[in-house]
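Glycoside hydrolase family 3 N-terminal domain-containing protein
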Amino acid sequence: MDNQQLLDLIGKMTLEEKVAQLVQLAAPFYEGAGDEGQITGPMQAMGITDSMIANSGSILGYAGAEGAIAVQDAHMKKNPHGIPLLFMADIVHGFKTIFPVPLAIGCSWDTDLAQKSAEIAAREAAVSGIHVTFAPMVDLVRDPRWGRVMESTGEDPYLNSLFARAFVRGLQGEDLMEEIERVAACVKHFAAYGASEAGRDYNTVDLSERQLREYYLPAYKAALDEGCEMVMTSFNTIDGIPASGNEKLMRNLLRDEWNFDGVLISDWGAVKELIPHGVAEDEREAAYKAIRAGVDIEMMTACYVHELPELVRGGSVDETLVDESVLRILQLKQKLGLFDNPHRGTNPQREAEVVFSREHREAAYELATRSTVLLKNDGILPLQAEAKVALIGPFAQSGDILGPWSWSGSTEDAVKLDFALIERLGDTNVSVAVGCGIEEGTEEQLRLAVETAAQADIVVLALGEASEMSGEAGCRTDIRLPQIQLELIARIAELDKPTVAVLFNGRPLDLHGVYDKVGAVVEAWYPGSEGGAAVADILVGAVNPSARLTMSFPHSVGQVPVYYNHFNTGRPQGAADAQVRYVSQYLDAPNEPLLPFGYGLSYTAFAYDGLKLSSGQMTEKSPLAISVNVTNTGERAGVETVQLYVRDVSGEVVRPVCELKGFVRLELAPGERGTAVFTLNEEQLRYHHADLSFKSDPGRFEVFVGRNSQDTLNDSFILN
């Protein structure tokens, strides 16, 4: 269908039929989904009629090729205009083949692998019946108390923007109509959900517009510039107005300023939540505010279908607003080719061939090895082949390594660490003891763990958070490991054995009781389906770790939020003329995080020298070439991620102490010397001024190049 045909179709629809296109319902409402008749409790209370279901526009959270075909066929028979359903689901870091969580993927600093992971996720989802995924989540995050940091790629707007583009490219490809094993992407959560107050889900966000534009909006804009088809509203307020009813945010900025003409969908229940937020008295006012803000699809509440028809007939809402939303939804269905083939890429045979295939699992393994960060190593790692290893801890034999938002993945199919380590070192060299559960344990478990460790040369502690301890609604004020695990570490430490801690978790942790008690720390995050194999190969040295943190690890939770690109203050700690007490500091902790943005170790060593700028002057038309020499001074080949940071020394508005502007990954053999070369131009120095104009300031800029945001070589230049 062309656009005129879609308009003609809308012209044939009743008002109720049009409004029903704007509702998204979960699978139990639909014939053929396998659990009909289970509409009870809150879903039953929604007051959804058979007519509303027959005319609805999209289904949420259903996958499986044969079932999806059955649901679509049944729906097409009931829909009076033969309009197909859109099938949508959260395919965040893999469908059946689960990749590391996005925060881990960010630590790879490898956008090509990120794109590949999204392409594989799209392929598996598409053949299983999915048309749209609620990904990528590109919220900038600075507070590890928030459970959903695991869905983001970190605390830097530049890096988040690169990954946003990569994920969209991988999910959508170049032509959704032709590439039927791709899915439409939905960037979320618009906007600034990562700034949720106190690190608590669904909570208030209070930012200046300058901060919003400078740090939180760039990654959403990058996803849209890459062609992302859909945007999801966030649960939070922006400038005192919830996103799903925020005309300034959705109409003025998203639609008018950014020219986004795709579909805007609410998050689950967010339209009706305008009522408890306190900006709508009832469902009618919630529907009125959401449609005026430009929300096209209401997910899992029924304000639109209950109230919009009467709002239109009463003259409170112009019917053209409804027509615009319906048109955008139909246009997406047309882009996906659903009018010509309602089943699109859904294919039981392909589903059997590609879902969780060896090829896909190999890609998941590679990304897991690239995402695992070596945080500490006092010469313990890699493990020696002849060493007797005691593998101890609640994650020693656990398949709970997929992480949140892996609903189609199988913990049973996940490669466990004990299996992988025994496979590499031999069953006579590896002894296993659970030691404790994730949050509780017995004295007998602890005693057996100590006995097992006492017989070994090296102890590997597999520790972390259960997957439900992070992700949505997984917010925590205490971000240390649970007390029973800290007790296990303390007991093992008394043996004075070389000890490695491997962490499976979804957030930066307060590592007190871990970092100070063991000789090596490996941050595995939730590494996905092949996680055990990837971590084992890191431990035995078959893979040299190369990942770098994209979110700072706090010294303690009292520092939070702590992030690298902070302001300096008028009384910075450590300044040459600083007083002892009356500076910006804590009395009981350092200002700096325990582990900074960009940090990560390797099994080899790299030396930096020869930082060189092509000129001491930059103009709008003459960018700088910046280079640095890097030498692998160790005995193993390795990858070094060379990072470029810049500071505007004097701006109209205070500028951060440094900002990431580029990075180069150098793969160097032992003794090999390489050169990382960057191009820095005037456009990269622009920022939002007090009047929100986007421009640079003339004057002096400092350049920092090094292995992380704190360990760098420095120089400077003048922007004319």
